[in-house]
Amino acid sequence: MFRLRTDVGPLAEVGAPKETCGPVEALCRMGNAIDPRAPAQPTRLAATYVLPIASNASQARVLGGYLRRLGRAIAEVIVVDGSPPATFDAHSRSWSPHVRHMRPDMQSRNGKVAGVMTGVRAARHDFVIVADDDVRYRRAELVRMRALLQHHEVVRPQNFFRPLPWHARWDTARILLNRLGDGDWPGTLGVRRSALLEAGGYSGEVLFENLELVRTILAAGGREAVPLDLFVERRPPESADFASQRVRQAYDEWARPARFAAQLALLPAATLLYRRDPRLLLATAAAAVAAAELGRRKGRGETVFPPSSALWAPAWLAERAATSWLALGTRLLFGGVRYRTTRLKTAATPPKILEQNLRSR
Question: Which percentage of the chain shows pLDDT scores above 90?
């Protein structure tokens, strides 16, 4: 029905548009004939970049330069902005020359989904790259994403943090351990607009919205690519924001019961090992570092993850051992985890239910 691919090679030119002199190709070539050293100007990629955002404080300066660079690299940039009116107006004054700036045309409990679906419906291109406001693409990565979307309905690249304050190093351990399996879950995805619209969109009532989007595409018969060597830079959050996300990220694993059960078992297992012989706990920590190092080297990860990254794996596992139980208590006591101004109970819809829903449409 579909096939997950994590071995997609780094040949960005496969299926990618040829670099030309731009929309005024004849004039460009004439200039090059006069001065052969003049560099050719690349065309903008035939794709749409969708950035959903909602912020109380203006992000005009933070994102302004990045959006201008995107506008030179990709044919269409859409910012779907759920910010308060004053912030929305400040963004519009700063960004409108470079992007299509609009408000969400729908509502959902997970506001990001409303922003993504608004942008996808408005997109003029079938190849769509969705990214959070802390993601920073370069042209080479956009080219490869577009090339992969020619043969897959959804693409999941890998993020790496830059710069690397202490909490980004801590969270990098999570990335490395996830790379041992089917890859980490980044703040960006590539998706075929036609495939997502034919599936009827994806639910905005869940917490783990990227997993929900991918599961929806797969349930509809789409193909997923997970190129473990396609790295996209991501800005780390502030340390206070990082701390506030700990239980929420653990709650995401309700969507994958086997993983959640394994993470719940970490705390009692560590307690048992310590009581039997503290050296066993040290050996387990060393094994976690070794596993993270394998994840660092997989898919050429050593090119973006520093060697010290693997040393943080025991700290991240200790965190997850505690926050998994907090996530369990949050579900049992409060009926869900807090997300902005609401609580969300469901992390993501099980694949079988998605397939049944799509068959009954």
Answer: 86
